[in-house]
UniProtKB/TrEMBL annotation:
EC number: 7.4.2.1
InterPro entries (alphabetical): AAA+_ATPase, ABC_ATPase_HisP-typ, ABC_transporter-like_ATP-bd, ABC_transporter-like_CS, MetN_ABC_transporter-like, P-loop_NTPase
Pfam families: ABC_tran (PF00005)
Reaction catalysis annotation: a polar amino acid(out) + ATP + H2O = a polar amino acid(in) + ADP + phosphate + H(+)
Keyword Cell membrane listed: no
Organism: Rhodococcus tukisamuensis
Protein name: ABC-type polar-amino-acid transporter
Keywords: ATP-binding, Nucleotide-binding, Transport
Biological classification of the source: Bacteria, Bacillati, Actinomycetota, Actinomycetes, Mycobacteriales
């Protein structure tokens, strides 16, 4: 991918800094993410992975540097962030489904509310997406009757309902019982195979090794090292990466 002269940069992060008060959490992040690329972000707890991800759709105010998504500079006050966000789906550790709505209604909500689709269109798309994540038969189920893995798959379908061209995942499997991790990772694997641009913060090193085009190791608010999974996992160069991998692998 990287040797192509027609690379299509989807996300360009330049000198990104983020502070909470006087706590500088991101200390100058530079990264380009290409269309269709699957980037996994790994690193110790507190290293700034979630904050980095949240800066990519401006869920955090950006302290310094720029984040350009699909050509839109998120730090430019004139840019309509809601428009940009419609192209970016985000899935969190906790699913945040609306408990009083069925799975299908959860998936239909955003397209209808934003007037992207009529109810009938949203219903059709919703049913297709629930089928895509293996939950066609759960369309009318309320979240309380679903397992954690099923809830997370509904949350992914809900994010996909806005037809995003970028998907951000923040530890999407960390709250799941071990036996449910696989079914959610399979959905991510399918999305990757379909060419979705994905930034995946994960503790699933096996998944990162198998699916990522590139793995970024973050620590203390900087990118310490990055590369293809075979390189980063197989022959990490930096002592901090070596130390981290020794603990988690
Ligand atoms: P990670 O996802 O790698 O565990 P985070 O991005 O969640 O790391 O957090 C990085 C640092 O930023 C931590 O020290 C955390 O306490 C701090 N932090 C994150 N969000 C906030 C916030 N909303 N207010 C203040 N500090 C925050
Ligand atoms: Mg986090």
């Amino acid at each position: 991918m990287s040797d192509s002269v027609t690379t299509d940069i989807k996300i360009r992060v330049t000198g990104l800094r983020k502070s909470f008060g006087d706590n500088e959490v991101l200390k100058g992040i530079d990264v380009d993410i290409e269309s269709g690329e699957v980037v996994c972000v790994i690193g110790p707890s507190g290293s700034g992975k979630s904050t980095f991800l949240r800066c990519l759709n401006k869920l955090e105010d950006i302290t310094g540097g720029t984040v350009v998504v699909d050509g839109f500079d998120l730090t430019d006050q004139k840019v309509d962030i809601d428009k940009v966000r419609q192209h970016i789906g985000m899935v969190f550790q906790h699913f945040n489904l609306f408990p009083h709505m069925t799975a299908l209604e959860n998936v239909m909500l955003a397209p209808v509310q934003t007037k992207r689709a009529t109810k009938a269109e949203a219903r059709e798309t919703g049913q297709r997406l629930l089928a895509q994540v293996g939950l066609a038969e759960k369309a009318d189920a309320k979240p309380a009757s679903l397992s954690g893995g099923q809830k997370q798959r509904v949350a992914i379908a809900r994010a996909l309902a806005m037809s995003p061209d970028i998907m951000l995942f923040d530890e999407a499997t960390s709250a799941l019982d071990p036996e449910m991790v696989g079914e959610v990772l399979q959905v991510l694997r399918d999305l990757a195979a379909q060419g979705m641009t994905m930034v995946v913060v994960t503790h699933e090193m096996g998944f990162a090794r198998e699916v990522a085009d590139r793995v970024i190791f973050m620590a203390d608010g900087v990118i310490v090292e990055q590369g293809p999974p075979a390189d980063l996992f197989g022959s990490p160069q930096h002592p901090r990466t070596q130390d981290f991998l020794a603990k988690v692998l």
